[in-house]
């Protein structure tokens, strides 16, 4: 098989980046993988009520090659009214054991304790190239690479570690999708709430609410009434708890007085704080709430708390999170994760980027119905 040109081949100089993204959706044992010219899409779901999507952009790899195969006859027929060019090739899709893949990447890229800390340090502190020398772990990892290969439809997913001239290969069995994998739909043209904030704030709030072991997470948002944005947990063995994000009211004084308020920037200097036109939680960068008339002035939705907790890994490593809600109540938590390329063994990504690489992990949750929420608050039903 070595003489056959693979459908897909990618080389990474930092397996920890791949491990970090895939671990975010590691709540399921299997994942559906789709190979595309722009990257690898991993999708994990559970009981059709939670779905995690992780996209490994080709910029994460030092080299990325994709040779789309010719579509099978049945795929061409299913394309319907598509033009001739669309049914000559397709993007391979298969199922792989996500737990086995994580264990493999963990062996390859996590066996050095300092490598595990590379990402966390880069996400909260500016890089300091002067602190790196020939005896630090990043310098010792220059000759390490992880190669992913998929040769043909139905072949295993090959993972090869090359380290100082020694190669270790692992092959993961791939399976055909059963056809039941359907993305939880998010109506992008019917978004009624969009909140962008630092992911650490959401992570802290969920951890705080989790201390009371609730069954239901209640999200409440309003553009005109306090609390403007609040999360609460209910239905557990302890009393109900809530977290309300603080609000900075528009200044009632003149413009000169409002401009006297300062905010500290990343470089240590200060600048005037921008005056907000409408009240909004101080911790948010974007706060848009437009409930339909049937909801009144406030958006209220309930979700199974244990499902929201499955996104805790993504909350912990992400820089920012976009919280979106559509008219059907589907909740989307889209996490933005930045990787510092300075600690990746010195290899330049395939995209040629010199700065941080941005990756995204998206979680989608189906809301609880009214009777399900009531059952959770009573401590019965399937919300245990």
What does this structure look like?
- Helix content is 21%, strand content 35%.
- The protein is an alpha+beta fold.
- The chain has 3 domains: 8-175, Proliferating Cell Nuclear Antigen; 188-246 and 283-330 and 366-377, Proliferating Cell Nuclear Antigen, CATH 3.70.10.10; 248-275, no CATH class.
- The strands form 5 sheets. The chain has a 10-stranded antiparallel β-sheet. Strands 5-1-7-8-9 form a 5-stranded antiparallel β-sheet, with helices on one face. Strands 14-13-12-20 form a 4-stranded antiparallel β-sheet, sandwiched between helices.
- A hairpin with a 6-residue loop joins β12 and β13 (229-234).
- α1 runs antiparallel to α3 (98-109).
- The longest helix is centred in the first third of the chain and has 12 residues, at 98-109.
- The chain is elongated and about 65 Å long.
- It starts with 7 loop residues before the first strand and ends in a 7-residue tail after the last helix.
Give a short synopsis of this structure.
Keywords: DNA damage, DNA repair, Nucleus. This protein is of the alpha+beta class and 384 residues long.
Number of helices: 10
Number of strands: 23
Shape: elongated
- From the N-terminal CA to the C-terminal CA, the straight-line distance is 49 Å
Biggest sheet strand order reads 10-6-2-3-4-23-22-21-11-19
- Beta-strand percentage range: 25-35%
Mean pLDDT: 78
Q: Number of domains in the coordinates?
A: 3
In the CATH classification, which architecture of the largest domain applies?
Answer: Box
CATH domain fold name of the largest domain: Proliferating Cell Nuclear Antigen
